[in-house]
Amino acid sequence: MTMIPAIDAQGVVMHTDNGETWRRVAQAGAGGLRRVAGNAWPLLQGTAAATTAWVIARRLGNHPDPFFAPIAAVVALNASRGERGSNALRLLVGVVVGILAGELAIGVLGARYGTLALATFAAMAVAVALGGARVMVAQAAAGAILTVAVADGRAGPQRLADALVGAGVALVFTQVLFSPEPVALLRRAEATALTDLAVALERTARALERDDDELAERAMNSLRDLRDRLAELSRTRRASSRVVRHSLVWRTRMAGVVRESENAGHLDLLGGSCLLLTRTALAMSLPERRRLAPGVLELAAAIADLARAPGDRPTRQRAADRALDLARSASSPGQYQPAFAAAAALQMVASDVMVFAGVDPGQAVQVLREGTGDFQVPDPPPASRSPFRSDRRRPTR
Q1: How many whole angstroms separate alpha carbon 156 and alpha carbon 100?
Q2: Rg (CA), the chain
Q3: In the 8-state DSSP scheme, what is residue 310?
Q4: How confident is the model at residue 13 (pLDDT cuts 50, 70, 90)?
């Protein structure tokens, strides 16, 4: 079998199997292609925006090489979906602040070495005071530097004109032509968080069945890492609110976005209750662990089903019904009857699943307390397509 040399991090020559090396290279290449394919639509939008900005700036401007206009368009669009419009405005504000700082510094001190330092610091300080977004601070500093260093301030007006063109094109792309559907934006973030929760609970169930400490540790780590996913969901909730307020296309969808955003907020509680269930279950004795495992696995299956179509009412109803049946089983003698604390944690997760599915929290508590009764999950807010078909994915995914 052919062996090829390799160098480790300390510079020591090692030997690696040639077939294994090519397998890793192929996996890395396949992963890169998948990432490119997954981001093809934003990449095409950025390319189109850059080209459009360059053409407009060439036709409207007084200088033959308006290179900053396409750069501004691409930088403005280089943000998460739902935040690109705000990113364009931050870029524009940063450029204006930088140019003004540079012009004022030149007017007071003239073209000196200290002028550059003063203008750069003042521009960044003002940008931080206005919000401190990274793109704003960077563009403020760049605007001040170019204004002072290039042609004694004559580059400032050209840069401002280019920034206006680039940011304007980006705003047309983000707020009119390719504005993301806000409910679908939330649903994708919900589906991702639910999938992570389902995976963590499934690992917990397997660890309980097999008394596997390594798998239990992986389950705990998955739930700890979920905080980052829930933080991303919170950012998406804020972004969807901005989209529906500022986009000309989706302004009429405010009520549906508010409902779905409140619904998505329940995932924070669901994540906390899943962590509590996992910690409680792993602290139990082996016989109690094995009695609890089927219930945890059933919850994982219900959440995984919900993750596949969080905007589908029958799917929500099915998940709520499964959670209700499981919660009732945990509160009465039977195969799911473990220690009291674990049973309470199991019921808490089931209750949070029902609430996310759309059941009123008070109704969920009442049904669980009485042990009888039923409920109907309301229709979730619909997610529709943009008139310009900017949302290329299925709304519920």
Answers
A1: 8
A2: 27
A3: T
A4: very low
Evaluate if residue 308 carries a pLDDT over 60: yes
What pLDDT, on the 0 to 100 scale, is given for residue 281? Answer: 84
The pLDDT of residue 153? 52
Spell out the domain ranges in the chain: 41-177, 182-370
- DSSP bridge pairs for 261: none
Does the pTM of the predicted model rise above 0.85?
A: no
Average pLDDT score over the chain? 78
Alpha-carbon distance 344 to 346, whole Å? Answer: 5
Contacts of 224 (CB under 8 A, 6+ apart): 275
98 touches 147 (CB < 8 A): yes
Q: What angle do CA 206, 210, 216 make, to 5 degrees?
A: 55
Average pLDDT over residues 224-232: 80
Residues 151-168 have a mean pLDDT of 72
Closest CA to 350 of 386, 374, 384, 325: 325
pLDDT value, residue 121:
92
Other CB atoms within 10 A of residue 262 CB: 10
182-370 CATH pick, 3.40.1760, 3.90.226, 3.30.1370, 1.20.120: 1.20.120
Distance, in Å, from the CA atom of 97 to the CA atom of 182, rounded to the nearest integer, reads 31
Angle at the Cα of 177 from the Cα atoms of 174 and 183, rounded to 5 degrees: 70
Residue whose tokens read 């007071």: 108
